[in-house]
Amino acid sequence: MSNDTRVAFYPGSFDPITNGHVNIVQRGLKIFDRVIIALAQNADKSALFSLEERQAMIREVFQDQPEVEVVVFTGLMVKAAESAGAPVVLRGLRGVTDFEYEFQLATMNKRLLPELETVFLMTERDNFHVSSKLVREVASLGGDVSGLVPALVDRALKRRFGA
């Protein structure tokens, strides 16, 4: 990788990946040459989909975009971003409560690794209300989430919940 390649590190649990996440990546690619989607391996969180399932879904969603990479990390996100050669963290914001939390994270990350920058993209209007948690909840109750997630994720949710 040349030094002039602009790389962003997009961390999260993506359980599951939503259209909001996809939109942030697509818009991030207008700013960055590469976006690394970084799946956080968090033993404390019980996930609906395994790490391997989430990784496979994300890879399939972006299969035609070689500039999107999927990695798994444990431990401090700043160390993972640094190891990946990403000087920027990409984050999406849905609203004020997201901003407060993300501001705290960005401030701590800057303290831990001063050269790491954080770029926030506002979620587009159609995705303000979408979160992975809400998608899981609605899908588990038999609700239609087809417009909120990629088609392959919708199918996986239906299989998981027997719909």
Supply database-style keywords.
163 residues, Rossmann fold, five-stranded parallel sheet, 5 strands, 40% helix, globular
Describe this structure in words.
This protein is of the alpha/beta class and 163 residues long. The chain has a single domain, classed as Rossmann fold, CATH 3.40.50.620. It is built from six helices and five strands. It has helices spanning 19-28, 51-61, 77-83, 96-112, 132-140, 151-161, and strands spanning 7-12, 34-40, 68-73, 88-93, 117-122. It has a five-stranded parallel beta sheet, sandwiched between helices. The mean pLDDT is 93.
In short:
The protein is built from 6 helices and 5 strands.
Domain tally: 1
> How many H/I helical runs?
6
Q: What is the rounded Rg?
A: 16 Å
Strand content: 15-25%
Fraction of residues in H or I helices: 25-40%
Strand order of the largest sheet: 3-2-1-4-5
Poorly predicted spans: none
Write the layout of secondary structure elements.
Blueprint: E1 7-12, H1 19-28, E2 34-40, H2 51-61, E3 68-73, H3 77-83, E4 88-93, H4 96-112, E5 117-122, H5 132-140, H6 151-161
Parallel strand pairs: 1-2, 1-4, 2-3, 4-5
